[in-house]
Amino acid sequence: MNELISIIVPCYNSERFVKKCVDSILVQTYKNIEIILVNDGSTDSTPAILDEYASKDSRIKVINKENGGLSDARNVGIDKALGSYIIFIDSDDYILPNHVESLANLVYKYNCEMAISPFTLVSENDVFALQDNPKETEKLYSPLECIEEMFYQRQFETTAHEKIFRKELFNNYRFKKGLIFEDLFIMPDLMLACNSIAFTSLSTYAYVMHDGSIEGSGFTEKKYQSVFDIVNKIDSDERLKPIKKAVDCRLLSLISRLYFSMPNNHPQKRYVWQEMKKRRNDILFNCRARMKNRLIAILMYLGPKLTTAVYRIIKTR
Question: Which of 35, 177, 219, 309 could form a disulfide with 261 if both were Cys (CB 3.0 to 4.6 A apart)?
Fold first, then answer.
């Protein structure tokens, strides 16, 4: 396969990380790429850094826009993409030299619209490298099988940055602007638009955790609204009814993260607890559910206060 692949990198105040990210893209073994760096209204030195890279490599395009958030930046990148396939990379992450080639080989080999490889969670000081003689496995999924596997969160996640997409998938779908956990909102739609989806166990994407990440942030009203926009959408999607157990597992994971971050006096905390509770029994007796979710289901029999106390003790250890 030698089709043009568009790599979209949304950048917002990324001066600490973006050089490592872009450098990792420039050394990819797959050469037929365009690199779209979307400056999402940065107020630090990010724009100057991006312009410097663009002046040195003709494959790089810089798009400057007003701040609109991750979803908006990705959508702008999609609009400008000329490639047959699209890959997203977050500006504070980086990839191994064979990342693009590995995903491109998968979609070519299986003639599919999407391919997935798991990310590896690293800290800022970790050195991420390809393992010697990795035991790579591959699998071809139907769309519903892939969503089910994704919702069980064992081999891969809902995140957009560990996947390659045929560009036509975005003809009818875009990331929802202003939403947190935007990947979970759109990913079932994108997968159901595919004929098949390939997976490799080979990890070539470094997901860097740092103090400013959304994953580590606390409760906000925006996070509350985003969670229930997603819950309501997925719960009401009739196409997902055959995999309801997997849906409940993924939504419990999402809702519980929200619940344990909420202030005790929040007026909707009881409602959030009830949303967790109605999924509890199915998860408790589901052997495919992650142990973390089954543990939460067990703890819930202690009631809201004790569940929260025990969860916080476990989390700090």
Answer: 219
pLDDT tens, position by position, 168-218? 999 999 999 999 999 999 999 999 999 999 999 999 999 998 765 555 568
Query: Over the stretch 257-299, which tens digit does the pLDDT of each residue have?
Result: 999 999 999 999 999 999 999 999 989 999 999 999 999 999 9
What's the pTM value of the predicted model, to 2 decimals? 0.94
Are 197 and 229 part of one and the same domain? Answer: no
pLDDT single digits (tens) 146-159: 999 999 999 999 99
Domain count within the chain: 2
Same domain, 240 and 182: no
